């Protein structure tokens, strides 16, 4: 959308009538608002109290960002571009979202096509702030046996705020598990986290 | 927060006396200062700084799963001896002797200020650590260690400040090819658990998102 006025640093000029000063101030207010709305990506966001910068973003975490500590499992990409294994597997990946954002949705692209295996994806946190760390499961998606390759979203709403308190030491991560099944029957391509950022200045 | 005044594009009305136009301009400056302070998320003071600043410490947390062992086997992503402790929820091992790397993925141009390791150690050894830069800009890569040390043995579960004075600027020169890494070693191995590492950094400007 074109701005109402081009930005100028040359107006008003000294020879303008004082009676036009109020017009110039209103014009300046409008010029600022239009440009800040554009920067923040929220029409009208500059005029709200507080200013509105909330935007929805996505972070796709491919399986290659995951790590497995389990021995004896032959991990491979076989079928549907999924990482899979005939043995039981637990894989972990760090969640490197900007601090202070809110996760609003989680989904996994994967499958569990065997007759016994259920693939599970959880978003968890370990709070190591004190000398006794605690672990909390924040969100879970389960693919029951017989699930074809597809995009599976968490049911219900998610509203997980990624802690931004400097005194805290909270680590967020994803965990994907599936029990032993036939080769190529269970696996995943990746996990997608949708989040809202309260502020453009949240650096990753 | 609640701003002092609502933002409007309809004031001044044009019906007021000319001698309050200076008040209107000061009001406008104040309203901009309040909102830009929010925009920068650093408070109103940084909008009035010269240059405008956005330098409050930010945090990036790397859970242990962000690390990679150079001793990974062909058939699994980590050496089989690594497991997740059921109480500390940290990574531990019974074999050790391996270096363990995590890339430092801070925005380019940021300044790394502090590094904390969430961990514990056992009675016979600590955790050697280092912060390194690999400069691959030329045909002969070089490595520089900016900070290093060892978490002492018998360290109870805590968040250990490895360094609060590193002041490492993450190079942002387009012609440079520099990689930044954090490295720990699980050697010796008794009682070492690692939940993750936290990097605290400053970054200038809102364009680093």
Which segments of chain B are poorly predicted (pLDDT under 50) over 5 or more consecutive residues?
Answer: none
The strand count of chain B comes to 12
Largest interface: A-B, 59 and 71 residues
Rough outline of chain A: elongated
Total DSSP helices of chain A? 1
Mean pLDDT across all amino acids of chain A: 88
Helix amount of chain A: under 10%
In whole angstroms, the N-to-C terminal distance of chain B is: 24 Å
Q: Could you describe the largest sheet of chain A, including whether it forms a barrel? A: 7 strands, antiparallel
- Approximately how much beta-strand content do the residues of chain B carry? 35-45%
Care to count the β-strands of chain A? 12
Low-confidence stretches of chain A: none
What percent strand of chain A? 35-45%
- Which class do the helix and strand fractions of chain A yield? mainly beta
Given the structure, what is the number of helices of chain B?
2
Q: How far apart, in Å, are the first and last alpha carbons of chain A?
A: 29 Å
Mean pLDDT of chain B: 85
User: What kind of sheet is the major sheet of chain B?
Assistant: 5 strands, antiparallel
Tell me what you see in this structure:
The complex is a heterodimer of chains A (204) and B (209). Chain A is mainly β and 204 residues long. Helices cover 10% and strands 39% of the residues of chain A. In chain A, strands 1, 3, 4, 6, 9, 10 and 12 form a 7-stranded antiparallel β-sheet that branches. Chain A has a 5-stranded antiparallel β-sheet with strand order 2-5-11-7-8, with no helix packed on it. In chain A, strand 3 (76-77) and strand 4 (83-84) form a beta hairpin. Chain A is elongated. Chain B is mainly beta. Helix content of chain B is 11%, strand content 35%. In chain B, strands 1, 6, 9, 10 and 12 form a 5-stranded antiparallel β-sheet that branches. In chain B, strands 2-5-11-7-8 form a 5-stranded antiparallel β-sheet, with no helix packed on it. Chain B is elongated, with a radius of gyration of 24 Å. Chain B starts with 20 loop residues before the first helix and ends in a 7-residue tail after the last strand.
């Amino acid at each position: 959308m074109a701005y109402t006025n081009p930005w100028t640093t040359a107006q008003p000029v000294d020879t303008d009538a004082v009676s036009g000063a109020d017009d110039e101030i209103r014009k300046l207010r409008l010029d600022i608002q239009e440009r800040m709305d554009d920067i923040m990506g929220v029409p009208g966001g500059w005029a709200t109290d507080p200013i509105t910068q909330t935007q929805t973003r996505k972070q796709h975490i491919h399986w290659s960002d995951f790590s497995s500590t389990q021995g004896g499992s032959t991990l491979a990409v076989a079928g549907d571009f999924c990482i899979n294994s005939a043995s039981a597997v637990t894989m972990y990946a760090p969640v490197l979202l900007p601090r202070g954002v809110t996760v609003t949705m989680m989904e996994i692209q994967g499958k569990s096509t065997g007759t016994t295996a259920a693939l599970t994806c959880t978003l968890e946190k370990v709070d190591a702030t004190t000398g006794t760390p605690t672990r909390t499961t924040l969100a879970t998606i389960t693919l029951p046996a017989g699930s074809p390759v597809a995009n599976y979203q968490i049911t219900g709403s998610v509203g997980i705020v990624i802690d931004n308190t400097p005194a805290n030491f909270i680590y967020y991560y994803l965990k994907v598990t599936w029990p032993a099944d036939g080769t190529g029957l269970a696996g995943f391509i990746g996990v997608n986290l949708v989040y809202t950022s309260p502020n453009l200045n949240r650096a990753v | 927060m609640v701003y002092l005044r609502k933002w409007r594009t309809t004031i001044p009305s044009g019906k007021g006396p000319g001698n309050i136009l200076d008040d209107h301009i000061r009001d406008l400056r104040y309203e901009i200062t309040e909102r830009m302070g929010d925009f920068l998320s650093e408070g109103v003071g940084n909008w009035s700084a010269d240059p405008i600043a956005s330098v409050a410490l930010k945090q990036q947390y790397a859970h242990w799963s962000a690390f990679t062992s150079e001793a990974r086997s062909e058939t699994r992503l980590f050496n089989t001896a690594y497991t997740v402790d059921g109480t500390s929820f940290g990574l531990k091992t019974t074999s050790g002797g391996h270096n363990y790397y995590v890339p430092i993925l801070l925005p380019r141009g940021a300044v790394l200020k502090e590094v904390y390791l969430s961990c514990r150690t056992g009675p016979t050894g600590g955790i050697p650590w280092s912060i390194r830069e690999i400069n691959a800009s030329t045909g002969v890569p070089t490595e520089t260690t900016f900070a290093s040390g060892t978490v002492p043995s018998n360290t109870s579960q805590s968040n250990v400040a490895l360094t609060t004075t590193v002041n490492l600027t993450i190079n942002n020169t387009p012609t440079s090819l520099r990689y930044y890494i954090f490295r720990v070693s699980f050697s010796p191995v008794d009682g070492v658990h690692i939940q993750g590492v936290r990097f605290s950094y400053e970054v200038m400007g809102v364009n680093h998102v």
